[in-house]
Amino acid sequence: LVRRLTDPFRRPAPEKPQRILIVKLAEQGATVVAYSALRRATEMVGRENVFFAVFAENRFIIDQLDLIPSENVVEIRTNTGIFALAGDLWRALRRFWKEDLDTSIDFEYYARASAIISYLSGASRRVGFHSFAGEASYRGDLMTHRLVFNPFLHAGQIFRFLVEAAAVPADSLPAMDTPRWDDEQPPMIQPSAEEIEEVKEIVRKVTNQEREPRLILLNANTGDLLPLRRWPRDRYVDLARRLLDLYPEVYVGLTGSPSEAAGAQELVDAIGSDRCVNFGGTTTLRQLLILYFLAELMVTNDSGPAHYSALAPIDVITLFGPETPAAFGSLSPRSHLFWAGLPCSPCIN
C-alpha cells in the first residue's frame, strides 16, 4: 500500500543505472559466488558508484574480493541487541538517501527484510525476485524489475542475471533475451610473508611441532544454523581415523569459528589421536584463508568455507546432502563435489 501511494511522487529512474546498491546481508560463501555479478556491476557504473549492504559479521569476504571500495560497504550489526540493529538500519537508510542511489539490487532469494531495505533505500529502480503466481516465496510487491527465481540456474548465474536485469526495461521482464554468462572465479588473495609466518606459528603451536606438518582440514560446521546440511558426526570421526592410519606423516585439523571451537574439540576427543588437533577459534578469518595455503586438502559440509576457500590454492571436497551442487557448488577448479542425491534436493528453502 505504501509503495502504491508513494510511487507517483518518486522521481523516475535514469535510463541506465548510475549508482547501484546491492543488498546481500548474509552468507559469505554466496558473496564469493557472486564475484562475476559484482564485477559486472562495477563495469556498468564504476566501482566508486557501487554500494553494498551486509550484516557486519559477513563483511569480511566482500573486503577480500576488493571489488567495492571499503567506504561503500554499509554494515548492519545483528549481535548487539534489537535497539542497535534498529539504529544501524536507520543509519544505513540515511546513508543510502544521502548517496542518491537510483538502483537497488536485492541478492537475497527468500528474505523479506532485504526487499524492504531495497525499497526504503530510495532507489527508483529496484531489481529482485517476485512471486508472480506462488512459484516462489512471497516477498511483497516492492520491486520494479521483477524476476522469476529459477532453481535450475547456478547461484552465480542468478546473481549475474539480477545485475544484467537492471539495465533492461522493466516491462520486458521477467523474460530476458540473453545468453548464459561465462562463470568467473575470483583471484586468490596474496598474503604477505609476515602473514604466512604468523599462521605457520599458529600451526606449530596447535600441533606442538617444531615444523609445520602436512595438513588435512575437516570443517564439520558444529555450529551451523542449518544442521540438516551437516555430515553426521560419526562419519567425520571415522574419516579422520582412516586418514591418520593411511598417512602416518599427516595431521588432521578441525576448523571452525570461535563459537564452534567446543564442538570441534569434542570431535578431536572422539577421534583420539595426538595427530588430530583443533584449529577452531585459533585464527581470524584472514588467518583461516592463509591456513588454506598451508594445508593440502579440506573436507567440508556445504557451507561458507567451501566457497571462500576458492581464494586459496587448497583442494576442497564438499559434501552435499539436502542441497544440490548444480545450484550451490563452488565453481573453483580445485573443488570436488560429492552429492547424496536426495529426491527433494534442493530440500532447503
Structure description:
Helices cover 36% and strands 16% of the residues. The chain is α/β, with parallel strands linked by helices. The chain has a 6-stranded parallel sheet, sandwiched between helices. Strands 9-8-7-10-11-12 form a 6-stranded parallel sheet, with helices on one face. The protein is elongated and about 70 Å long. The model has no long low-confidence stretch (mean pLDDT 91).
Radius of gyration: 22 Å
Number of helices: 13
Helix content: 25-40%
**β-strand number:** 12
Gross morphology: elongated
Q: pLDDT below 50 for ≥5 consecutive residues: which ranges?
A: none
Structural class: alpha/beta
Beta-strand content estimate: 15-25%
SSE order in H/E notation? HEHHEHEHEHEEHHEHEHEHEHEHE
Distance between the termini: 27 Å
What's the story with the biggest beta sheet? Answer: 6 strands, parallel
User: Which strands sit side by side, in order, in the main sheet?
Assistant: 3-2-1-4-5-6
Average of the residue pLDDT scores: 91
Short description:
With 349 residues, this protein is of the alpha/beta class.
Record keyword descriptors for this entry:
349 residues, alpha/beta, 13 helices, elongated
Summarize the helices and strands and which ones pair or pack.
Layout: H1 2-6, E1 20-23, H2 28-33, H3 35-45, E2 50-55, H4 59-65, E3 73-76, H5 82-99, E4 103-106, H6 113-120, E5 125-129, E6 145-147, H7 155-165, H8 193-207, E7 214-219, H9 233-246, E8 250-254, H10 261-271, E9 276-278, H11 285-294, E10 297-301, H12 304-308, E11 315-320, H13 325-328, E12 335-339
Parallel strand pairs: 1-2, 1-4, 2-3, 4-5, 5-6, 7-8, 7-10, 8-9, 10-11, 11-12
